[in-house]
Amino acid sequence: MPSMLKRLAILLSIVLVWAPALAQSEIVERLGVPGPITFEGQSFELAWSSAPGGGYYKQEYVPAGQSVETYTEMFLVEAVTSPLRPIDAANGQVKLVQQRKGTDPVANFDIRQNEQSGEVVLDFLLSDLKANPIVVEWNVYRYVPRPGGEGVVLYALSRRGYGDVGAKALLGQLKSIRSSTVLALANAELPSVSIKD
Predict the structure, then answer these.
(1) Which of 19-28, 114-123, 133-142 is predicted with the least confidence, judged by mean pLDDT?
(2) What is the 3-state secondary structure (H, E, C) of the chain?
(3) Do the beta carbons of residue 140 and residue 122 sit within 8 Å?
(4) Could you tell me which of 34, 137, 27, 113 has the C-alpha nearest to residue 77?
(5) Is residue 197 part of a domain?
(6) What is the pLDDT of residue 13?
(7) Peptide bond preceding 36 in cis form (omega within 30 of 0)
(8) Which structural domain range is residue 42 located in?
(9) Quick one: signal sequence residues (predicted)?
(10) What CATH number does residue 37 fall under?
(11) How does pLDDT run across 3-52, given as a tens digit for each residue?
């Protein structure tokens, strides 16, 4: 993969890995998805957006009463308009998870590719045991070829547990919800993206 595509894949894959969204006074809706987005019975409102450049757009949605800095559930919609395939974007995230395995005791992932549609579903687990409080984060990413143009659209769900109690609760909950949530995101009818610069 050319180096520009590698950079884009890594940029798209660094969605949530411990970089809380920066506060901003105005949310600019650029993807034609103003929300709310409903997933598994939970409503998510648009709370943050960014267009850092290079044809990369990101919007974060959280339930009422939650913030992007301290959420327990978040839904994301992102788009990259450069020539990038879903599998390339997913492999960028997989590489980051693999790099953490030496220092992160829960780092793990599972990846599935639909050869027919080109879509990829990746779920992965990370932790930050040095944070105060500690954080455990589970993510499900669905990478979709961008309709009508080059690039990738990412639909993602992220769940976090904070502190010993929250982290243990999330890890315990995953045993019963992981498969159904991954399947729900893989099969969900999600809003189409139309980029507005």
Answers:
(1) 19-28
(2) CCHHHHHHHHHHHCCCCCCCCCCCCCCCCCCCCCCCEEECCEEEEEEEEEEEECCEEEEEEECCCCCCCCCCEEEEEEEECCCCCHHHHHHHHHHHHHHHCCCCCCCEEEEEECCCCCCEEEEEEEEECCCCCCEEEEEEEEEEECCCCCCEEEEEEEEEEEHHHHHHHHHHHHHHHHHHHHHHHHHCCCCCCCCCC
(3) yes
(4) 34
(5) no
(6) 45
(7) yes
(8) 3-20+28-187
(9) 1-23
(10) 3.40.1000
(11) 444 444 444 444 434 444 444 447 899 999 999 999 999 999 999 999 98
State both tokens at 54: 């290079």
**How many residues make up the chain in this entry?**
197
The pTM of the full predicted model, rounded to 2 decimals, is: 0.88
**Residue-level pLDDT at 93:** 95
Q: pLDDT tens across 103-112, in order?
A: 999 999 999 9
196 is a domain residue: no
Assess whether the previous peptide bond of 133 is cis (omega < 30° from 0): yes
Domain membership of residue 141 (yes or no) is: yes
Token pair of 109 as six digits:
């992932």
